[in-house]
Automatic annotation (TrEMBL):
The keyword Disulfide bond does not apply. GO terms for cellular component: mitochondrial matrix. Belongs to the Mrp/NBP35 ATP-binding proteins family. Its cofactor is [4Fe-4S] cluster. Keywords: 4Fe-4S, ATP-binding, Iron, Iron-sulfur, Metal-binding, Mitochondrion, Nucleotide-binding, Signal, Transit peptide. One of its GO terms (molecular function) is ATP binding. GO terms for biological process: iron-sulfur cluster assembly; mitochondrial respiratory chain complex I assembly. PROSITE patterns: MRP (PS01215). This is Iron-sulfur cluster transfer protein NUBPL.
């Protein structure tokens, strides 16, 4: 993305071949098979493996009416991914008022978009029996949070979750959108793979704090998107610094410039540095995102002008 090793333990059975070395292990024998592939053989093997892996994968189908899809993801939960997704959607709309922007929340177990966008209620159905997004601040929004009670936990197994994701992707009447920002759940599991393999994605934005623990998972998240051939647009370093509101002293609570170091390792851009600030938290909790409520605020940097789509 060679040396192959196969370790086989058989009780009392002697195997030879593949240049195997027979090693006694109590009453069993350990057979180590090794084979060195030439460059041509290795490349052929990779191509064959890719063909096998591609079988049964869903064919990507665009979401009707949507031109560009941007996913906002993180390997670790609690790093401000949903806050970033919400403010990114609002920033894209503010950057060009002629662009129509939507926001899709596929974090089935922990949907945050309804509260952050100050939206409640069940979606109406169109004549074609598709769900109509709820609208606020000029952004069309859809979330599992609109379909269940706010305090009701979703105790679902994987198949039910994937069915819900399919409905969120295919049974929403978005109208005509220039950008659809998708708020992904943390991790690199079924939901991420399903979204990446079912719809064409223009790019992924990875959100992380500068903390080493978060960066480890952010690295995995970036590599996952590369494996499924989704362009990674860059990293957002959230909670980068805390400035005391009284003395103005700056403290790097989660470490300094960790995401910048990771960006250099992955050969990616840093799309923005977002400080740890009370205004951002309060704006999110009250359903008045800071890009909308305080667009000239010093506490937030707009990075949407750095995004370029073909």
């Amino acid at each position: 993305m060679g040396v192959w090793r196969r370790l086989l333990v058989f009780g009392g059975v002697s195997l030879r071949g593949c240049g195997g070395v027979r090693v006694p292990l109590g009453g069993s024998r350990l057979v180590i098979c090794r084979r060195q592939f030439s460059g041509a053989e290795s490349e052929t093997l990779k191509q064959r493996r890719s063909q096998i892996m591609s079988r049964g994968l869903p064919k990507q189908k665009p979401i009707e009416g949507v031109k560009q899809v941007i996913v906002v993801a993180s390997g670790k939960g609690g790093v401000g991914k949903s806050t970033t997704a919400v403010n990114l959607a609002l920033a894209l709309a503010a950057n060009d008022s002629s662009k129509a922007v939507g926001l899709l929340d596929v974090d089935v177990y922990g949907p945050s978009i309804p509260k952050m966008m100050n939206l409640k209620g069940n979606p109406e159905l169109s004549q074609s029996n598709l769900m109509r997004p709820l609208l606020n601040y000029g952004i069309a929004c859809m979330s599992m949070g609109f379909l269940v009670e706010e305090t009701a936990p979703l105790v679902w197994r994987g198949l039910m979750v994937m069915s819900a994701i399919e409905k969120l992707l295919r049974q929403v009447d978005w109208g005509q959108l220039d950008y659809l920002v998708v708020d992904m759940p943390p991790g690199t599991g079924d939901v991420q793979l399903s979204v990446s393999q079912n719809i064409p994605i223009s790019g992924a934005v990875i959100v992380s704090t500068p903390q080493d623990i978060a960066l480890m998972d952010a690295h995995k998240g970036a590599e996952m998107f590369r494996k499924v051939h989704v362009p990674v647009l860059g990293l957002v370093q959230n909670m980068s610094v805390f400035q005391c509101p009284k003395c103005k002293h700056k403290t790097h609570i989660f470490g300094a410039d960790g995401a910048r170091r990771l960006a250099r390792t992955l050969d990616l851009d840093i799309l923005g540095d977002i400080p740890l600030h009370l205004n951002i938290r309060e704006a999110s909790d009250t359903g008045q995102p800071i890009v909308f409520s305080q667009p000239e605020s010093d506490e937030i940097l707009l990075w949407c002008q750095d995004f370029e789509f073909q």
